[in-house]
Amino acid sequence: MKLIIAIVQDEDASRLISSLMNDGFGVTKLATTGGFLKSGNTTLLVGVDDSKFDACMAIIEKVCKSRKQIATSPVTMGGTAGMYAPYPIEVTVGGATVFVMTVDQFVKY
Ligand code: 2BA
Hints:
The protein has helices at 10-22, 53-63, and strands at 2-8, 26-33, 40-48, 67-76, 84-93, 96-102. The two termini are 18 Å apart. It has two helices and six strands. With 109 residues, it is α+β, with helices and mostly antiparallel strands. Strand 4 (67-76) and strand 5 (84-93) form a beta hairpin. The structure holds ligand 2BA. The site of ligand 2BA has 11 residues, from strand 5. Ligand 2BA is lined by residues 7, 34-37, 41, 91-94, 97.
């Protein structure tokens, strides 16, 4: 068995959860925050049998879209300590950041 930890954009989360559940996968949704953009994203925990792993990953890949976002980063102004001015940078977020872990034990009490 594998535990899939998928960090996805909020915009894709509902559709991804519906698609996974329609195909019989169990899903836990966590409200999370990206460290770089400091804005909300969604982390899904999906425990899957090895035989269904590829099908699950295919759904995640199909549903999650990459998008461009503008982030504001501080930059030090030349030579003057302590002066900062924000400037916009474009980053491409997602589709999904996925970690896969092997599960030693899966127990339901
Ligand atoms: P954030 O940390 O908010 O990052 C959002 C996007 O900003 C990233 O998209 C990436 O394109 C860009 N980015 C992140 N760190 C950067 C940096 N130091 N310099 C320039 N650009 C940077 P993704 O790579 O698709 O990541 C989406 C979200 O997935 C991340 O949101 C974070 O919540 C999570 N994530 C990504 N890599 C991770 C990792 N190695 N471990 C844990 N979480 C991760």
